[in-house]
Amino acid sequence: MTAPSATVGHAARSLPKARGLMAAACLLLFSGMAGADGKVSLEAPDEVAALLEKYLVVLKSDHSQQLASFNDRIALARRTRREAESLLATEGYFSPDIRLESAGNGDWKVVVAPGPRAKVGSVKLNLREGSVLDPGEAEVQLDGLRKRWKLNAGDPFTQSAWDAGKGALLADLTRHEFAAARISSSLAKVDPEAAQVDLQVEVDPGPRFRFGEIDVRGLALYDSDLV
User: Fold this and answer.
1) Each residue of 197-209: pLDDT tens digit?
2) CA angle in degrees (0–180, nearest 5) for 52-62-73
3) What are the boundaries of each domain within the chain?
């Protein structure tokens, strides 16, 4: 099963100093674990526990061999942190605290405090300049798209809602004359400190598609108006 992935563009979620402290903590933690059995558990709030338990690799297999090697232990700790950060980002948690603590008896646990869930700050929807629509018609189309947009300011941000919003935007256009519509650019700008995500989407509607003349042949029993 493939883990969900975050595609939003944003600044680094952890400061270099914080990462350095984390690395130092890992060194202290694992230096006394040469004889560990490799059993790993998770301590996390209910709202994120199911996601981490489903996809976090360190919880799914025996890591006793990696824990027997000092360098492998450090690599495992860093990889686990990166995986957890990526998973949490898909649910809008961009400033998590992820710690590795001894659980006693040679075992250890991943302790996760997800931090605040980011909310949508601003939403900017635009049509690409130079589209085939005249200014008045473009404004009407854009106003309709904005009214039907589902992920609005103040809503919790999730990667799935962001993807669904863009998909619905395209579906809205393609079923009304603009079969070649596409998203020309999109950006989710994350501010981890403010727990806020500003969204920008630019849509290129492409040419308008219309039915041409209908040529009906081969009818004998029915009038062509019935086609």
Assistant:
1) 999 999 998 888 7
2) 85
3) 16-113, 119-204
